[in-house]
TrEMBL record:
Entries under SMART domains matching the protein: AAA (SM00382)
UniProt protein name: Holliday junction branch migration complex subunit RuvB
Domain notes: Has 3 domains, the large (RuvB-L) and small ATPase (RuvB-S) domains and the C-terminal head (RuvB-H) domain. The head domain binds DNA, while the ATPase domains jointly bind ATP, ADP or are empty depending on the state of the subunit in the translocation cycle. During a single DNA translocation step the structure of each domain remains the same, but their relative positions change.
Region described as Large ATPase domain (RuvB-L): 20-200
Known catalytic reactions: ATP + H2O = ADP + phosphate + H(+)
One Pfam family matching this protein: AAA_lid_4
Keyword Hydrolase: yes
Cellular component per GO, a single term: Holliday junction resolvase complex
Cell location: Cytoplasm
Translocase keyword on record: no
Length: 364
């Protein structure tokens, strides 16, 4: 029952990575929200990458359509900016159904959920974003609604309270979460289909960049798109954001066309390096290498060295560094990998770094 006591661990990446602060942050900022609607693929064919999820979802939706039935409930899990909201809209579009959008934090009381559920039309898609942040009573009401298309509305208070059953029209719940692990198993089990969204490969992001450039009416060549894709941290939202910043640069400092050189120079101005690391990521790596010889060093010490909060280093910088294989979290502290030394163009000192600290861990 470890999901029980973590219900308040409200997606730290959303707290530690406040919208708009980082060019390579994966959570949507105001700017993103303004353009995202225009850049969203409208159907499964337009949706780039996530081949497995697309194929599986295509089958689920086609089968439901052929039966003339409402599609099974779908759970979308994955990091911010990978396309969960986009896919939920595609599901509704593919089913020719209307969509109602709400989120876990917006549902404070079970009554809020009851009123949404009871106003759904038959076949409607209910998109519940951040479903892991719903209140407990609402969650329990949702179990019954998902399974039996029924809710019990409680009328009155105390011993006189009565539950009045209310039939619901069949609907499709699409839940989205950045933290599938926080979902209580009874909720997870009620989804007929779960899609795990993966980070995108560079070639896929390149296609995302080309597509968005076309929609934004921006000239870009193949190498320019590849350059942006390579710095986008596997995330379409970041690719689209970097594209907009590079477009600004191309229009102000050049003739508007994005080439590799323009993209590289523009993103250099914004301190996003060739691998998508920003100032903070690099500061953490540099401190680890230059001050601590590659570690192991404790998180608190590392945080002080870069002048940041412990949480910022742990939740904002480290996940990407770990994912990129640049940094490892070990029981003895943070350790730089050989790739980290290479990325910063440095040579590990003999007898220091991971080889000495963790014999054989990285095969060095
Ligand atoms: N497969 C894709 N093909 C093309 N563009 C995509 C794809 N996935 C996402 N995008 C683009 O990335 C942007 C962000 O996607 P979306 O809002 O769906 O992410 P999300 O997973 O819902 O993020 P969050 O967890 O922050 O809600 C969208 O504007 C969309 O244009
Ligand atoms: Mg979303």
């Amino acid at each position: 029952m470890n999901w029980d006591d973590t219900s308040d661990a409200t997606a730290p990446e959303r707290l530690a990575d406040p919208a708009g602060e980082r060019l390579v942050g994966s959570v949507a900022d105001r700017d993103d929200q303004a353009v995202e609607a225009a850049l969203r693929p409208r159907d499964l064919d337009e949706f780039i990458g996530q081949e497995k999820v697309r194929e599986q979802l295509d089958l689920v939706l086609k089968a439901a359509r052929a039966r003339g039935a409402t599609a099974d409930h779908v759970l979308l899990s994955g990091a911010p900016g990978l396309g969960k909201t986009t896919l939920s809209m595609i599901i509704a579009a593919e089913m020719g159904a209307p969509i109602r959008i709400t989120s876990g934090p917006a549902i404070q009381h079970a009554g809020d959920l009851a009123s949404i559920l009871s106003s759904l039309q038959e076949g409607e898609v209910l998109f519940l974003d951040e479903i892991h942040r719903m209140s407990r009573p609402a969650e329990e009401m949702l179990y019954m609604a998902m399974e039996d298309f029924r809710v019990d509305v409680i009328v009155g208070k105390g011993p006189g309270a009565t539950a009045i059953p209310l039939e619901l029209p069949p609907f499709t719940l699409v839940g989205a979460t950045t933290r599938a692990g926080l979902l209580p198993p009874p909720l997870r089990d009620r989804f007929g289909f779960t899609a795990h969204m993966e980070f995108y490969a560079p070639a896929e992001l390149e296609r995302v960049v080309h597509r968005s450039a076309r929609l934004l009416d921006v000239e870009i060549d193949t190498a320019g798109a590849a350059e942006i894709a390579g710095r986008s941290r596997g995330t379409p939202r970041i690719a689209n954001r970097l594209l907009r910043r590079v477009r600004d640069y191309a229009q102000v400092r050049a003739d508007g066309t994005i080439t590799r050189e323009i993209a590289a120079t523009a993103l250099g101005v914004y301190e996003v390096d060739a691998r998508g690391l920003d100032r903070l990521d690099r500061a953490v790596l540099e401190a680890l290498l230059k001050l601590f010889g590659g570690g192991p060093v404790g998180l608190s010490t590392l945080a002080v060295a870069v002048g940041e909060e412990r949480e910022t280093v742990e939740e904002v910088a480290e996940p990407f560094l770990v994912r990129e294989g640049l940094l490892a979290r070990t029981p003895r502290g943070r350790v730089a990998t050989p790739a980290a030394w290479a990325h910063l163009g440095m040579v590990p000192p003999r007898g220091a770094g991971p080889a000495a600290g963790q014999p054989g861990l990285f095969g060095t």
